Amino acid sequence: MSSGTHTRATVLVAEDERHLADLYTDYLSDDYDVVTAYGGEEAVDVLHDPTISVDVALLDRRMPDLSGDKVLADINEQGNDCRVAMVTAVNPGFDIIDMGCDDYLVKPVSREDLLEVVERLLKLSEYSEKHQQLTSKKLKRNVLEVEKSTAELERSERFERLTDEIDGLESELSEIGADLSFEDLQRHI
Questions:
Q1: CA 37, CA 25: separation in Å to the nearest integer?
Q2: C or N: which end of the chain has fewer Cβ atoms within 10 Å?
């Protein structure tokens, strides 16, 4: 996900009922760049297009050409790092536990429902990305603390910068985490 202020997140809406796809696109287009796919095969084409970087995919579970489950399987097989929410009339069963999607909305959904789920999934991506950066920096700090003397560490501007970056990332994670529930964080790390 691009967290820069100039780049809007890209949301894929995959829905075979054209009026719903257009409605969801309309709901989201003020806040996000939206790519609309009117079926599963079209969604896979979008996801495989190297010129399009999808941050969040909203998938209908039942599409006649290619189901949302199969689109999700393709996303996972391809290692696509977009977040996925099923937006569907199919009431969830226990099969969703192993499904590999991040969220599940049962139709009908409102504009607020869609905006809320997209925002939550984008925050989860940002949290995950920053958590990976923090872990990497902490591992480097730990190696240096073991291998270098206290005097060497205290003289190193690069080590001081690393420590400041760790503090900054911890602060950012804390702020993002405050916007997310504990359950969201536990599910998505």
A1: 10
A2: C
- pLDDT profile of the chain (189 residues), mean per 10: 60 96 96 96 95 95 90 90 89 75 90 94 86 89 91 92 91 80 46
Q: Parallel, antiparallel, or unpaired for β 56-59 and 33-37?
A: unpaired
CA distance 26 to 40: 20
* CB within 8 Å of 93: residues ≥ 6 apart: none
Write the Ramachandran bin of 121: left for phi over 0, alpha for psi from -120 to 50, otherwise beta: alpha
As a whole number of angstroms, the distance between CA 184 and CA 189 comes to 9
- Map tokens 């054209």 to a residue: 18
- Cross-strand pairs, 134: none
The pLDDT of residue 5: 41
SS (H, E, C) 8-24: CCEEEEECCCHHHHHHH
Q: Residues of 77-91 as b/e, b for ≥16 C-beta within 10 angstroms? A: eeebebbbbbbbebe
